[in-house]
Specification:
This protein has 263 residues and is of the alpha+beta class. It contains 4 helices and 11 strands.
Length: 263
């Protein structure tokens, strides 16, 4: 009799354990049955970034999911109805059009100052005439010409780069074939302040030229770099001389004008 009682007790314990094992599975099945699936189209922003932002609004239970199809610009959600609704509201708030960011237009002019006439240089424009007049009163050069001028645009927070080949005769130099005079510039992190008269800040303006120099007593040459690097802060449409560099009896003067424009 005692043995029968022990066997019955063991069977009861086993049945209880089996029921406990089946309970989570049944609960999990019921959870999945309650899930709702919905596909959301993303019209303005990156679907992956939005999905990453809203994933914590999901229940996290087994079977729930948030997936992204970046080619179709869709986010698919499978979860409890209340979680799907919360995610839907968050997507609607986040998927807003990106505000137009104004461009910053930079006009960079490189002038040549010389004690003698510069027949090969381009004539300085009327726009830069006030700058030349100011230079004539502060520098020792009587003649000014335009070596190059470029206009480039960028977004706030970005930078600009440019390069080119200078005409040696403008600098009173002769160089061997295959040894050009090179110039380049780099503007790092250009930002602007708002208001009716915005100012434009350049974290660093780096201008340099690589000039072939003949080695004494030799037919060989080696390149030497000349230039400057400086931070710049100017007002919109203001023409500012940001740096000069001397090359023999001539000088290069870099003038910058900046404009904040919506297009």
């Amino acid at each position: 009799m005692k043995r029968i009682t022990i066997i019955a007790a063991a069977l009861l314990i086993a049945a209880t354990a089996l029921a406990q094992e089946k309970a989570p599975a049944a609960e999990e099945y019921n959870n999945v049955r309650e899930y709702k699936s919905k596909v959301f189209e993303v019209h303005n922003r990156d679907a992956r970034e939005i999905a990453s932002s809203v994933k914590l609004l999901g229940s996290g239970f087994k079977g729930s999911a948030i997936s992204v199809n970046n080619e179709m610009h869709t986010i698919t959600v499978r979860d409890y109805p209340e979680n799907v609704a919360a995610i839907e509201g968050a997507i609607a708030r986040l998927d807003q059009p990106v505000a137009d960011t104004p461009d910053i237009e930079m006009k960079i002019s490189v002038l040549i100052g010389s004690k003698t006439a510069l027949p090969g240089a381009a004539t300085v424009s009327d726009e830069l005439a006030p700058v030349v007049k100011q230079l004539e009163s502060t520098l020792r050069y009587a003649h000014y010409g335009l070596m190059t001028a470029t206009v480039q645009r960028t977004k706030p927070g970005s930078g600009l780069t440019g390069s080119g080949v200078a005409e040696p005769t403008l600098l009173g130099m002769t160089v061997k074939e295959g040894q050009p005079i090179l110039y380049n510039y780099r503007l790092r992190r250009i930002t602007s302040t708002g208001g009716d008269k915005p100012s434009i800040d350049i974290e660093s303006f780096d201008f340099s030229m690589r000039v072939p120099i003949a080695l004494g007593g030799s037919t060989e040459t080696q390149y030497q770099s000349v230039g400057f690097e400086t931070p710049v802060s100017i007002h919109q449409n203001e023409k500012v001389v940001i740096g000069t560099t001397t090359m023999g009896d001539k000088a290069l003067i870099v003038v910058v004008t900046a404009t904040v424009t919506s297009k």
